[in-house]
Amino acid sequence: MKRFFATLAAAVLLMASATSCHAQKEFSDLAKIDGVTSIYIGKAMLKMAGGMVGDYTNSDDMDLSQAIKDLTSVEVLTTEHQSAVKKLAPMLDAKLKSMNAEQLMEVNEGKEQVVIYAQPYPGDSTLCSSLLIVTREPKEMNIVMLKGKIDPAKLSNE
Question: What are phi and psi for residue 137, nearest 5 degrees?
Answer without folding.
Answer: -140, 165
